[in-house]
Amino acid sequence: MTLTIGLDGAIKSPLTRALSPTDLGKVTAHYNAEPGDLIVFVADSLKVCNDVLYRLRIRMGEKLGLIDPNEAALCWVVDFPMFEVIEENGEQRYHATHNPFSGVKPGHEALFQSDPLAATARQYDIVFNGYEIGGGSIRIHKAELQREVFGLLGLDASQIDEQFGHMLEAFELGAPPHGGIALGFDRLVMLLAGTDNIREVMAFPKNANAQDLLMHAPSPVDSAQLDELHLSVKLPPPDPAKS
Where are the alpha helices (DSSP H) in the chain? Predict the structure, then answer.
């Protein structure tokens, strides 16, 4: 939804049907809006609003020539929330925003019991000119804390032991604090080369059908190879609309 202020000061917006002139005036005053300005509103979940407004901001910056192609801007993004709520099979549950192994900000462990969504993860991303070129975290290295995180994510004790028992046993024996970062070097090269197509800086890029034309991959697999791995191939029935 948008709100525009004409050069004559008149407000044009669908909001005029819901808000009084006094309330509209409060909106424009809050943003110090002047004639010729545009205010954009998005109403949805926080995640959707952030994504939509981010994309709109970049798009408008490109169209209006507000982005300097010769400028290099780097920043660290930190203080990610540890958890978010997602809906699955009609039910809401906690989900790790990054991964279930990321550490939690010291002192925020108690929030797991009272307000998990307020807990801050020890995660970090590095961003270059609006593109994420790396990310990582300081990991959990204490078994009890890791069990607590798995429990919040909906795993019971038997599932935790079956899937992650080997890791938790290592933690109990005294794993040290550890962490790291994964860098997207190809994405960084793409930006330094002044292109927005990562395939242009890759030696052997896949085409739009995920095929490697140099290696002729993926290639057919013969029945002996499938038998060795106890696999079978089931093709979908032909689509009459495409025949």
Answer: 21-30, 46-63, 111-114, 143-152, 157-172, 185-192, 223-228
Per-domain residue ranges for the chain? Answer: 73-208
Q: Phi then psi for 87, rounded to 5 degrees?
A: -105, 130
Q: What pairs with residue 86 in β-bridges?
A: 93
Contact 28, 9 (CB under 8 A): no
Contacts 24+ apart (CB under 8 A), 114-117: 116/82, 116/83, 116/152, 117/81, 117/83, 117/84, 117/85
> Which residues, other chains included, contact 166 with Cβ-Cβ below 8 Å and sequence gap of 6+?
none
Strand order in the sheet with 179-183: 74-77, 123-128, 131-138, 179-183
CA-based max dimension of the chain: 78
CATH topology of domain 73-208: BirA Bifunctional Protein; domain 2 (3.30.930)
Task: Give the pLDDT band (50/70/90) at residue 46.
Answer: confident
219 pLDDT more than 80 = yes
Q: What is the mean pLDDT of residues 80-104?
A: 91
Q: Could you tell me which residue, 90 or 32, shows the higher pLDDT? A: 32
Q: Cα dist. 53→26, 84, 217, 224 in Å?
A: 22, 20, 39, 53
Phi-psi region of 235 (alpha: psi -120 to 50; beta: other; left: phi over 0): beta
HEC profile of 131-175: EEEEEEEEECCCHHHHHHHHHHCCCCHHHHHHHHHHHHHHHHCCC
Query: What's the pLDDT score for residue 243?
Result: 64
242, pLDDT greater than 80: no
pTM of the model: 0.72
Does 220 sit behind a cis peptide bond, omega within 30 degrees of 0 on the bond before it?
no
